[in-house]
Amino acid sequence: MLVICLCVGATPEYMAGHYILQGASSLLPVMALAPQENERILDMCAAPGGKTTYIASLMKNTGVLVANDINKERMKALVANVHRLGVLNTIICQYDGRKLPKVMSGFDRVLLDAPCSGTGVIAKDGSVKTSKDEKDIKRCAHIQKELILAAIDCIDARSSTGGCLVYSTCSVMVEENEAVIDYALSKRNVKVVATGLEFGAEGFGRFRGKCCHPSLKQTKRFYPHTHNMDGFFVAKLKKFSNKIPGSTEDQKDQLSDNPDTEETS
After folding, report:
1. What is the reported pTM?
2. CA angle 188-212-117, nearest 5°?
């Protein structure tokens, strides 16, 4: 008997762009983002392109999709997948996501699949258990907090169709998930809204005696032993004002709106 083993990443159908390979959990952030046709959408950490091409598919190749990633080597896979799958509405760029608000903004929706410790994929990559320590978790959390503020600043709160951010990680650590969202709630004019995902565990409103914002229960957690997919976290935020709390411009606006405030010479 002749047995032929064919890699699913090397079939004629794959090369022709009929499908792409990715884990089931990777579909969840895009489902929560719910992209619409003719919108302006940013995928802030896009490589290798699985979520980017899924967004483009749901947009039906309309509107504008900006796919950004800081890693030059990973950009190669992003470019290859976009071309292979026939995506026509995507602009690919290489910026530090934390500096993107100074380059471009006014997006209807933003997806931030943030770089993380990868503790949710231990089931398929056991090296995570020995290659990551507490310092790595803290370093990732710091970068994630900077990225989420930048992602929010890229969104236009006046968007008639969106004004939403989806934040996701393949980590199960509270420091990289609920703590990051709680930080964003205290720094920007955003609120947590339902993800629209019908399954998954609730996010933590309290952890080790520390209370987080009660709306964090609307975030979703996914576990390998419960949902048969990689460990994942998904949160959806709605931006309701373009003002940045505590900024000079925000203080000026508050003074101008206050009728009791008088100019003094």
Report:
1. 0.89
2. 80
